[in-house]
Design goal:
By secondary structure, the chain is α+β, with helices and mostly antiparallel strands. The protein folds into 5 domains: 3-9 and 29-351, Glycosidases (TIM Barrel); 359-429; 436-453 and 606-714, Jelly Rolls (Sandwich), CATH 2.60.120.260; 456-601, Jelly Rolls (Sandwich), CATH 2.60.120.260; 749-841, Rhamnose-binding lectin domain (RBL) (Jelly Rolls). It is built from 13 helices and 48 strands. The strands form 12 sheets. The chain has an 8-stranded parallel barrel, surrounded by 4 helices. Helix 4 packs across helix 5 (194-217) and helix 7 runs parallel beside helix 8 (338-351). It starts with 35 loop residues before the first strand and ends in an 8-residue tail after the last strand. The chain binds 2-acetamido-2-deoxy-beta-D-glucopyranose (NAG) (5 copies). One 2-acetamido-2-deoxy-beta-D-glucopyranose (NAG) binds at residues 473, 476, 573. One 2-acetamido-2-deoxy-beta-D-glucopyranose (NAG) is lined by residues 774-775, 779, 781.
Length: 841
């Protein structure tokens, strides 16, 4: 018996794819130019040493309306440098076609940094990784004949040089380099090349040397750096990326180069499938203190503000929400205590700047796992000491210069004059806050949905134009214009092919290089499957109802961004590659060479269904839970100024748009190990919204109850303080008295400062206890020691004010007579809100 297949003519058709400076040390950045030099000790601006506290903020990850606030909040957090990568694929989407508008207006971003009197670092790459689509490389580079990315390859080097030169010239035209009076003091070429060099061997070495010379030849007048590149060419400064550069990195081998830390991860970026990520304020402060204690003079927080991977800009599997755990969260709100604790650290280090930049470094072991590192200018009596405890489980006490110090587990204490503790990484004096999401009326008002479904008429082979014997590679087909590619084939079955027993159902097995797919047989939804960030390839196995005669297979394959790391990025593959049907009477049928038809993109994409006007599609009253369906509704902007998010918990997987702007890919059906979607709240910047009639559009692949989607607002109105009287007090500066440096402060008691978000005041003190309270911000409880008048005193000092300061001391609150001699902690939770309007208003 022979199996009759409809052998489809394989014809490849040509596819026409539519195609700071803080007051005292302010530099005058408007003067003709500054010279940036360096030695082992530090970078220097016009010969003057400086400490650099830098934060990464990537301009395309926030609307430009938000840049000014982000930069000023970074400055308020004690930073004097802002860093950004440059993103080649958004600036040159087609070869020779450039875009520097809106979120991509790099020049405007660096000018804003200058207006804030801060320095800047530009990391041009142009390969940047950055969890950004294709690591920043444009798709079209893959189609350049004989190209191999990031190695000694002429086509790549030629295009890389052209782009780097273009960017440098644009920055020069705007006079943005320090040498021209601009803010940019450092520029980066390539990115974490070290492990690529191992893959490309001598070609890699030749390439990285070429890259350094090429960068220098652009003549920026500022030093160039290479991060994570131990054997960097002599012309550039190698820098460290990591979590603990103070303990894991000995510094550049060239002894005339400073210790610069370009990426100190403030958390971990997340991909779909990842559980929440954390890195505590205490741990970051510990690592940064260690770095400065070994002679580091610049740290860059990666990220200081992450923002959003809007539309299709994220790398494979990376969620739209980027480094939400950074000191400024996805919405640009202060994440406390991270933001405040690092601000306090910067202030403490700056207070000790003289010793740090000009003092002589020495170390003193203080016992196993305890160490003192000090910088001292003896004749001037300028000194700073870092006392560290590397024991992760035990607090301890050390004796340093005849005095005893309590050093909590895994901490660094900074002694500003080698005597007075001005900062301890484990003692957080800054306030805490709690983020909450609030239901808005806009969720229920006008909750009327329309739909346009593609799932009822999935394409079959007949409708396709691009036909080959085997399924085609997906990135090659979609050319980064869409995530979606249809694969279709048809085959014929005779009655004797079908299983004789009715309880045997044939199984279809579809294998893909990634990233996800939805399978239809004979126009009916069969199932879905997906890979993961680590294992992008996957196989979908599903029982299928086949019939005698011609059967049609339609597979919608999707990708979630192009990979952003590793060698040979230009060869990465996605999409369906093989398919079989098992359990037929006649054995396994292999359809991999059966003749395949392809359609790039969705019908709704071609018809612009995502736009505010709704495109050329026939919108109809919605029926929910349908796969491959576009849904949309209108909603008004929630009142007030709190950030707005859309809760997509009820949905499966797809894309979300508001007024035609892509907010990113969503994937609520992919649950992480704790049983929750990695991200279900999607940021809608207020500048994307109009007061009324905003259009929310989704393309849903799997089905979901769109009418249960909620419009929410975001607040950080619960502010808290949790400070022990043992914490270091607040030192404002040093003064010389009888040739001794003494701390200038009202007194050296720790202080709690509670401060509401802009335009809000403290309306209520929800909790206050002076004693041994327990819990976390949002849920404190009274311990067994408690002074009765704490709440009343806090209310008196705080209610009705935007911010208030509370001294943490027995002298203020008294003691609990039942707990003599205990060290007390002040815990306060307060609620901020806008002042109540009066009845007449
Ligand atoms: C900065 O330098 C420019 C040019 O040298 C000069 O005109 C200006 O007065 C300076 N500004 C300050 C604040 O020193
Ligand atoms: C180095 O480049 C040459 C061509 O320029 C190529 O033949 C060789 O395979 C490359 N070696 C590696 C390790 O990439
Ligand atoms: C991508 O397409 C090019 C021709 O455009 C072809 O040479 C190459 O082999 C294709 N790559 C894959 C992985 O199919
Ligand atoms: C609040 O904290 C107490 C213990 O301090 C704990 O038992 C309780 O579950 C917490 N409640 C919430 C809502 O987190
Ligand atoms: C040098 C260093 O600390 N590298 C770490 C960076 O973070 C990743 C992910 O958390 C770790 O795997 C590395 O070890």
């Amino acid at each position: 018996m022979s199996l009759l297949r409809v052998r489809l003519a394989a014809a490849v058709a040509v596819l026409a794819v539519a195609a700071l400076a803080l007051a005292a040390d302010a530099y005058n950045l408007t003067k003709p130019g500054s010279v940036i030099t360096y030695d082992r000790r530090s970078l220097m601006v016009d010969g003057r040493r400086e400490l650099f506290f830098s934060g990464s903020i990537h301009y395309p990850r926030s609307p430009y309306h938000a840049w000014g606030d982000l930069i000023s909040r970074a400055k308020e957090g004690g930073l004097n440098v802002i860093e950004s990568y440059v993103f080649w694929n958004v600036h040159e989407p087609e070869m020779g076609v450039y875009n520097f508008e809106g979120r991509y207006d790099m020049i405007k971003f660096f000018k804003l940094i200058q207006e804030h009197d801060m320095f800047a670092m530009v990391r041009i790459g142009p390969f940047v990784q950055a969890e950004w689509n294709h690591g920043g490389l444009p798709y079209w580079l893959r189609e350049v004949p004989d190209i191999i990315f990031r190695t000694d390859n002429e086509p790549f080097k030629k295009l890389m040089q052209k782009f780097v030169t273009l960017i440098v010239n644009k920055l020069k035209d705007a006079k943005l380099f320090a040498s021209q009076g601009g803010p940019i003091i450092l520029a980066q070429i390539e990115n974490e090349y070290q492990h690529m060099e191992a893959a490309f061997k001598q070609n890699g070495t030749r390439y990285i040397e070429w890259a350094a010379k090429m960068a220098i030849s652009t003549g920026t007048g500022v030093p160039w750096i290479m991060c994570k590149q131990i054997k960097a060419p002599h012309e550039v400064i190698p820098t460290c990326n990591g979590r603990h550069c103070g303990d894991t990195w000995p510094g550049p081998t060239d002894k005339d180069k400073p210790l610069l830390w370009t990426e100190n991860w403030t958390a971990q970026y997340r991909v779909f499938g990842d559980p929440p990520s954390q890195r505590s304020a205490e741990d970051i402060a510990f690592a940064v203190s260690r770095f400065f204690s070994v002679g580091g003079t610049m740290v860059n927080y990666y990220m200081y503000h992450g923002g959003t991977n809007f539309g299709r800009t994220g790398a494979s599997f990376v969620m739209p929400r980027y480094y939400d755990e950074a000191p400024l969260d996805e919405f640009g709100m202060y994440k406390e205590p991270k933001w405040g604790h690092l601000r306090d650290l910067h202030q403490a280090l700056r207070l000790c700047k003289k010793a740090l930049l000009w003092g002589k470094l020495s170390t003193q072991p203080l016992g196993k796992l305890y160490e003192a590192r000090l910088f001292e200018i003896p004749d001037k009596k300028v000194c700073v000491a870092f006392l560290s405890n590397h024991n992760t489980k035990e607090d301890g006490t050390v004796t340093f210069r005849g005095q005893q110090y309590f050093v909590p587990r895994r901490s660094v204490s900074i002694l500003g004059d080698c005597k007075t503790v001005v900062f301890s990484t484990q003692h957080v004096n800054s306030q805490h806050n709690q983020r909450t999401f609030h239901f808005t009326d806009q969720t229920v008002q006008n909750n009327v949905w329309e739909m346009y479904t593609e799932g009822d008429t999935v394409p079959t082979y007949k409708l396709t134009t691009v036909r080959t014997e085997q399924p085609l590679e997906a990135f090659n087909m979609t050319k980064d214009k869409t995530d979606y590619l249809w694969y279709t084939t048809s085959f014929k079955l005779d009655p004797e092919d079908l299983p004789f027993r009715h309880d045997i159902v044939p199984v279809m097995e579809v294998s893909s290089h990634g990233h996800a797919m939805v399978l239809y047989v004979n126009g009916k939804y069969v199932g879905k499957g997906h890979g993961t960030k680590i294992n992008k390839a996957f196989t979908l196995e599903n029982p299928v109802q086949v019939k005698v005669g011609i059967n049609h297979v339609s597979i919608l394959s999707s990708t979630l961004g192009m990979q952003d790391s590793g060698a040979y990025l230009e060869h990465r593959q996605a999409g369906v590659h093989s398919i079989t049907i098992q359990g037929l009477n006649t054995g396994t049928m292999d359809l991999s060479n059966n003749g395949w038809g392809h359609i790039v993109g969705l019908e709704g994409e071609r018809k612009q269904a995502h736009t505010e006007k709704g495109g050329d599609v026939q919108w109809q009253p919605a029926v929910f839970d349908k796969p491959l369906t576009w849904y949309r509704r209108r909603f008004d902007m929630p009142s007030g100024e709190d950030p707005v998010v859309i809760d997509l918990n009820p949905m499966g997987k797809g894309m979300i748009f508001v007024n035609g702007e892509g907010l990113g890919r969503y994937w609520s059906s992919y649950k992480h190990a704790l049983g929750r979607p990695s991200q279900y709240l999607y940021h809608v910047p207020r500048c994307f919204l109009k007061p009324t009639g905003n259009v929310l559009t989704l393309f849903e692949e799997e089905g979901g109850k769109a009418d249960a989607i909620m419009v929410l607002t975001v607040k950080r109105d619960n502010i808290c303080s949790f400070i022990s009287e043992k914490n270091p007090g607040h030192v404002r500066s040093w003064e010389r008295k009888d040739s001794q440096l003494v701390a200038v402060s009202n007194d050296l008691k720790p202080r709690a400062v509670l401060s509401c978000p802009e335009k809000k005041t403290i309306q209520q003190v929800v909790f206050a206890s002076y004693g041994n309270p327990l819990g976390i911000c949002g849920n404190y409880t009274v311990g067994n020691c408690h002074t009765p008048k704490a709440k009343e005193l806090v209310e008196k000092a705080c209610v009705g004010k935007r911010s208030c300061e509370l001294v943490v001391s027995h002298e203020v609150y008294g003691g609990d007579i039942n707990c003599p001699g205990t060290t007390a902690t002040l815990a306060v939770q307060a609620k901020c809100s806008k002042r109540q309007r009066t009845a007449e208003q």
